[in-house]
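Thread amino acids onto this structure.
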C-alpha cells in the first residue's frame, strides 16, 4: 500500500471560506439515506478566487447547486476523498446546496452515520462528518445548524439531533419528521443524529438563573430501570459546574442516548451526548462500584464539554488537549469532590504511570500538542480511557488526555483555586464560540493573574517524561536544609535534545516526631522568600537548581511532590528508613501511598534480580510490618488502605528494567502477594469478616470503601490456594447481594486454575448470559488472566456464541508471554482492521514497545508487526502505529 500522508502542525493555514449557517435534511431509509445540505458560505478574503475544497468519503454525490444553479460534472472535480469547486461567485456570501446518498447499514466502522442494533446513530469526531456529506471537515469551521430528520414512524419513532426541538409531525407514507435547531455555533464534529426504538427517563434541572432544563436519557425500553444513576450523575454534574466554575447550561433540553455499539465510549455532541451503554446503564445486580464511578465521571466529563470543548473548541486537531486535557481535569475534580480526593488522585496517577509514562518512553511518544499525525482517530484513546475504567478493551493512553490533564492541574497548583477560576473566566470572556489554541488558554491563565509562567509552554511541545533527581543536605550549625534539583527529559522520536521545563514541586518537611515543620523562609536564586505554612511550592525551571530552607532545628525528612504536583519520574536520596517513616507519618496521604509504592518497587526489583540469578526469594520483614501497620490503622480511609496494600503492577516494574523480563516479574509479584497474604492472613481475614454487609446496595464513598477493602483482602487470601480460603471466596460469591462483591469473589477464585475456577465461571455465565454488559466482564476476566495456557482458553472464547468481534465492548487485548500469544493478537488485529480500524489500532499498540523485551520475544513480536504491515488494505489507523513501532 502507498504510505498514508502525514499531516503537520506547522502547515496549518486558515480556511479560505467560512460557513455561517448549515441546514441539513436526512431522509433515512433501510437501504440508503439521502442527505441534503444548504450552506451559507462566505470567503475569508472578499474577492478570493481560491477553490472551495470539501472533504467526503464513501459518499455518492447526487447534485451540487451554487446560488440555485445546478452544476454540471465539468463544473467541479470529484475524487475518492474530495469535492472541489473551482469557480465560485465573487460575493460577500453565497448559498451552496449538496445532495448525497449514503449507506449506513454497510458502515461497520461505526464512524459517520451508521445503523446498528436497529438504530441510526452518528459519530463525527474527529473526521466522521465527511462520511455523511461533503463539507470542510475541520474544527475551525463553526456554524449554526438546523437539522430535519424524517423516517418510517413505526421503525424509528424517536428522531433526535442537536439543540432544541422546533417542530415535529407526521408525513405521508407512514413517515414522520422532527426539526431541530442549535442556536450556538459549533464545528461539524459535534453534529449528532439518533433515530430508533427508544424510551426515555425524564427529569428536570433548574439552573441558578431559574431556567428549567428538560433532561432525557434514551435507551431501549427494557434498559430504562438501569438509568437512574446516570440521571443522578447528570444533575450532580450540572450543579457542580455552576458551583465550582459558574458555568450554566445554555439550552432548554439535554439528551443522552445509550447504544451498545459505539466506538468512542462517550461523545459530547452539543445537547445530544451519545454513550456506549456500558457508561450509562447500572443496577446493583449488574454493575460494580467501578462501573458506578465510571458513569459518574464520564457523564460529568461529557457534560462539562458543553463549555470546555463546545462553546470554546479547538482551532485544529493538534490542539485537542485544549478541550480534552482541560475536561479530563474537570471530571477528575468533580469525582474527587463526590468521593475521596486522595483515592481519586491515587487512581489517576496510577493510570498515568501505567499507560502514559510507557508511551512517553516508546515509539509512539508525542507531546501534549502533537507535531504531526497520520490518522487523527489514534489520538482518541482518551475517549476509550473512560471505557477502560469499567473494562472495555485494551488501550494505550495518550498524552493528549491524561498528561494534558496534569498540565492543567499544574496551572491550578501554581495559581490556587481562586487564581485558576479567574483564568477560566477570562478564557470564556475572550473566546466564547471561537476555535482557539493552547496558547490562548495559557494567555488567559497568565493575564488573569499577572503570572510569570517562565518556560511552562514546553509542556505542550516536548514529548517524554521529565526525570527529576533530588539530593538533600542538612547544615546543623546554620540550621538550613537544602534541596538540589536536576531535571532531564530523555530523547524521544524526532526530539533528540530537550529544554528544561517548568516543574512545580509541592514540598513539606517532617520532624523526627512525624509532624510537619512550619516553614519560615526559603532561599533560591538570590532571593529569600518568606513562608508561613507547612508546605510550599518550589518553582523548578532550570536544569539544575537549589533551594535552601532556613531555621530548621533538626534534619527533616522531605515530603516531595505532594499530591503528585507534576507528571514526572522522581529519583531521590531518601533511604528505606525515610520511606517507611513517610509511609507511617506523612500528612499528605498521597505521599503515604507513594512511599509504600516506592518501597514495593525497590523491593520487587531486587527480588527480580535474585530470581534471575537463582537466589532464594526472601521478603523484607520491615515491608510486611509497614503494610501491616497501614492495614490496622483505623484512622485511615478504607479505600485508601485498599490502594496502599495493592502492589505495583507488573508493567510498572518492567518499565524500570533495562530489559523487561515478564517471567521474572510475574513470578516475583506472585511471590510477594502470597507472602504478604500468608504473613497478614489474620488481619486480612478479620477485614473480610468485619466489612460484610447485608444491607441494600448504596453507591457512596463509605460503602464503596468498605467493599474495596474487603474484596482486596479476599483476593489476597484466595491467592494462597488454601482450601479454607477458597471456600471463603466461594461463600462470598454465593452470598453476594450485589455485582461488586460477587464479581470480586469470582475474580479471586479465577486466580487459580482448577475445577472450582471452571465451575464458578460457568455458573456466572449461566446466571448472566442474558445481560451482555455483565457477560463482557466475564470475557474480560478470562482474557486478562495470567493462568498457564490462557492463550488457548482465549482462542476458544472467540468461538463463544456471546462473543462478537464487531462490538467494541467485546474486542479485547491479549499481550501474551510467548509466541502463540503474539500470533493470536496479530491475527485478531488483521481480522478486526477490516471491520473496525479504530479498535484494531488500539490493539496493535500492545506491540509498540517490543524492543523492551529479550531477543526471542523481540523476534516474535517483530514478526507479527511485519505480518500486520503486509496485510492487504491496511487501514491508516493501524498503519500509523505498526509502522512507527517497527521504526523505533
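Threaded sequence (888 positions):
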Amino acid at each position: 500500500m502507498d504510505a498514508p500522508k502525514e499531516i503537520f502542525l506547522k502547515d496549518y493555514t486558515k480556511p479560505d471560506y467560512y460557513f455561517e449557517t448549515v441546514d441539513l435534511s436526512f431522509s433515512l431509509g433501510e437501504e440508503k439515506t439521502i442527505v441534503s445540505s444548504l450552506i451559507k458560505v462566505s470567503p475569508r478574503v472578499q474577492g478570493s478566487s481560491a477553490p472551495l475544497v470539501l472533504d467526503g468519503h464513501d459518499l455518492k454525490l447526487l447534485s451540487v447547486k451554487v446560488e440555485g444553479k445546478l452544476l454540471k460534472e465539468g463544473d467541479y472535480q470529484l475524487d475518492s476523498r474530495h469535492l472541489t469547486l473551482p469557480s465560485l461567485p465573487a460575493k460577500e456570501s453565497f448559498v451552496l446546496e449538496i445532495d448525497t446518498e449514503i449507506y449506513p447499514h454497510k458502515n461497520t466502522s461505526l464512524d459517520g452515520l451508521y445503523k446498528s442494533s436497529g438504530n441510526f446513530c452518528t459519530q463525527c469526531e474527529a473526521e466522521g462528518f465527511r462520511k455523511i456529506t461533503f463539507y470542510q471537515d475541520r474544527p475551525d469551521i463553526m456554524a449554526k445548524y438546523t437539522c430535519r430528520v424524517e423516517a418510517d414512524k413505526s421503525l424509528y419513532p424517536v428522531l433526535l439531533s442537536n439543540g432544541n426541538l422546533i417542530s415535529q409531525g407526521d408525513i405521508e407514507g407512514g413517515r414522520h419528521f422532527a426539526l431541530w435547531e442549535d442556536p450556538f455555533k459549533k464545528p461539524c464534529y459535534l453534529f449528532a443524529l439518533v433515530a430508533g426504538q427508544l424510551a426515555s427517563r425524564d427529569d428536570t434541572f433548574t439552573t441558578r438563573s431559574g431556567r428549567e432544563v428538560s433532561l432525557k436519557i434514551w435507551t431501549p425500553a427494557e434498559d430504562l430501570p438501569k438509568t437512574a444513576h446516570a440521571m443522578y450523575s447528570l444533575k450532580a454534574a450540572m450543579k457542580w459546574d455552576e458551583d465550582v466554575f459558574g458555568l450554566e447550561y445554555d439550552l432548554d433540553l439535554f439528551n443522552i442516548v445509550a447504544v451498545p455499539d459505539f466506538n468512542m465510549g462517550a461523545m459530547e455532541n452539543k445537547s445530544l451526548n451519545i454513550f456506549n451503554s456500558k457508561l450509562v446503564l447500572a443496577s446493583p445486580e449488574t454493575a460494580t462500584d467501578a462501573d458506578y464511578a465510571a458513569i459518574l465521571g464520564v457523564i460529568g466529563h461529557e457534560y462539562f464539554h458543553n463549555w470546555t470543548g463546545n462553546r470554546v473548541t479547538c482551532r485544529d486537531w493538534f490542539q485537542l488537549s485544549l478541550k480534552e486535557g482541560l475536561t479530563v481535569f474537570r471530571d477528575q475534580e468533580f469525582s474527587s469532590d463526590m468521593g475521596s480526593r486522595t483515592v481519586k488522585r491515587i487512581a489517576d496517577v496510577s493510570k498515568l504511570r501505567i499507560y502514559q509514562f510507557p508511551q512517553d518512553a516508546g515509539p509512539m511518544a508525542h507531546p501534549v500538542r502533537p507535531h504531526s499525525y497520520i490518522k487523527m482517530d489514534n489520538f482518541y484513546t482518551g475517549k476509550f480511557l473512560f471505557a477502560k475504567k469499567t473494562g472495555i478493551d485494551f488501550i494505550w493512553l495518550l498524552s493528549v488526555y491524561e498528561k494534558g490533564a496534569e498540565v492543567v492541574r499544574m496551572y491550578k497548583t501554581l495559581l490556587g483555586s481562586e487564581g485558576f477560576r479567574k483564568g477560566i473566566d477570562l478564557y470564556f470572556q475572550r473566546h466564547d464560540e471561537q476555535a482557539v489554541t493552547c496558547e490562548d488558554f495559557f494567555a488567559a491563565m497568565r493575564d488573569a493573574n499577572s503570572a510569570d509562567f517562565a518556560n511552562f509552554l514546553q509542556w505542550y511541545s516536548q514529548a517524554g517524561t521529565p526525570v527529576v533527581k533530588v539530593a538533600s543536605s542538612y547544615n546543623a550549625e546554620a540550621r538550613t536544609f537544602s534541596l538540589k534539583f536536576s531535571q532531564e527529559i530523555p530523547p524521544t522520536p524526532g526530539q533528540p535534545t530537550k529544554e528544561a521545563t517548568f516543574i512545580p514541586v509541592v514540598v513539606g518537611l517532617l520532624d523526627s516526631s512525624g509532624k510537619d515543620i512550619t516553614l519560615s523562609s526559603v532561599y533560591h536564586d538570590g532571593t529569600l522568600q518568606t513562608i508561613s505554612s507547612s508546605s510550599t511550592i518550589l518553582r523548578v525551571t532550570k536544569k539544575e537548581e537549589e533551594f535552601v530552607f532556613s531555621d530548621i532545628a533538626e534534619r527533616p525528612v522531605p515530603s516531595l511532590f505532594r499530591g503528585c504536583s507534576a507528571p514526572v519520574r522522581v529519583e531521590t536520596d531518601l533511604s528505606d528508613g525515610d520511606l517507611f517513616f513517610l509511609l507511617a507519618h506523612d500528612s499528605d496521604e498521597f505521599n503515604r501511598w507513594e512511599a509504600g509504592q516506592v518501597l514495593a518497587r525497590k523491593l520487587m526489583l531486587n527480588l527480580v534480580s535474585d530470581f534471575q540469578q537463582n537466589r532464594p526469594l526472601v521478603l523484607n520483614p520491615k515491608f510486611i510490618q509497614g503494610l501491616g501497620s497501614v492495614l490496622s490503622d483505623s484512622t485511615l480511609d478504607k479505600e485508601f488502605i485498599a490502594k496502599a496494600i495493592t502492589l505495583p503492577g507488573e508493567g510498572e516494574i518492567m518499565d524500570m528494567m533495562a530489559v523487561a523480563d515478564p517471567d521474572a516479574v510475574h513470578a516475583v509479584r506472585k511471590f510477594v502477594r502470597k507472602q504478604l497474604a500468608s504473613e497478614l492472613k489474620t488481619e486480612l481475614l478479620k477485614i473480610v469478616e468485619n466489612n460484610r454487609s447485608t444491607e441494600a446496595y448504596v453507591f457512596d464513598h463509605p460503602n464503596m470503601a468498605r467493599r474495596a477493602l474487603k474484596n482486596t483482602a479476599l483476593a489476597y487470601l484466595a491467592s494462597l490456594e488454601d482450601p479454607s480460603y477458597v471456600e471463603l471466596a466461594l461463600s462470598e460469591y454465593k452470598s453476594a447481594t450485589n455485582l461488586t462483591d460477587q464479581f470480586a469473589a469470582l475474580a479471586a477464585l479465577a486466580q487459580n486454575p482448577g475445577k472450582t475456577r471452571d465451575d464458578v465461571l460457568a455458573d456466572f455465565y449461566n446466571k448472566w448470559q442474558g445481560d451482555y454488559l455483565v457477560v463482557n466482564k466475564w470475557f474480560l476476566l478470562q482474557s486478562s488472566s495470567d493462568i498457564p495456557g490462557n492463550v488457548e482458553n482465549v482462542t476458544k472464547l472467540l468461538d463463544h456464541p456471546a462473543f462478537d468481534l464487531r462490538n467494541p465492548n467485546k474486542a479485547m487485548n491479549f499481550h501474551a508471554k510467548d509466541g502463540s500469544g503474539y500470533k493470536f493478537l496479530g491475527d485478531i488485529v488483521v481480522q478486526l482492521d477490516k471491520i473496525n480500524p479504530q479498535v484494531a489500532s488500539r490493539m496493535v499498540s500492545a506491540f509498540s514497545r517490543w524492543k523492551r523485551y529479550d531477543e526471542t520475544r523481540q523476534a516474535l513480536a517483530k514478526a507479527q508487526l511485519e505480518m500486520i504491515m503486509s496485510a492487504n488494505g491496511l487501514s491508516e489507523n493501524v498503519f500509523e502505529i505498526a509502522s512507527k513501532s517497527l521504526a523505533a
